[in-house]
Design a protein that fits this description.
Elements: E1 9-14, H1 23-32, E2 35-41, H2 48-57, E3 62-66, H3 78-87, E4 93-102, H4 110-127, E5 131-136, H5 139-148, E6 155-157, H6 164-172, E7 176-179, H7 189-197, E8 204-206, H8 228-239, H9 243-257
Helix pairs in contact: 8-9
This protein binds zinc ion (2 copies).
Amino acid sequence: MLENNTLEWIDIHCHLDRLEGGPAHALKLAQDAGVKNLITIGTEPDDLPLVLELAEKFAPHVYCTIGIHPHEGVKYTAEVGKFLRANASNPRVVAIGEIGLDYHYNQSPKEEQIFAFREQLQIAADVGLPVEIHTRDAEADTVKILNEFKGRVTGLIHCFTGTEWLAKEALALGFNISISGVVTFKNAEDLRQIVKNIIPIDRLHVETDAPFLAPVPMRGRPNTSAYVVHTAQFVADLKNVSLQTLSEQTKKNAQALFKKLTL
Ligand SMILES: [Zn+2]
Ligand SMILES: [Zn+2]
């Protein structure tokens, strides 16, 4: 049971352009549930103008990131790099992302994923924005490449589903860790142990990654930002803190990492 639905949340990772009922409807649902602010995530050249438009249209409650997802690594070009640099100073753009490596699906060849990842980390370093990292079945290369940018780039690992090793490496690199509805799934015992024992509460975020990965008890439906409260309740229980404490702490964490937010 939710203790209190008047608490404020920020969904630090969703795809508002793809949510059921359209962006205005999804944002209303979110705000009714206390999810006052959200960050909508860019993934490929075609959706970057769209996330920018949504963040402008629904300011001040919607922010965005711009970047090329590892699935779309083949679409990373010098032209895209220029676009990222040109738009990094937009007050609605709070991070470069989602970027990273996904060897689970290998929708883009490894070499192209790695190239796009490095290029975008360099851009993040140059423009002084944090990054939202997507990594799946690619822990060794992710850590190796993040180490190349050690001290120059900060950010978070989004929708963390990795090993304890990755969690510790990411934290040591100064990265935060964001937890999605996956933590509520039956088979996610390892992840629950990591949340409980490894991730300090001041380095933790919650997110939906909507429209994907709806948390229990909404599992099976299309996910939407409003549901971040279910993941939050679950994480609060794991950390043995009140929902209010988690709400205040995650807001603080988001503000500290994404400097352009005004929460
Ligand atoms: Zn992702
Ligand atoms: Zn995503």
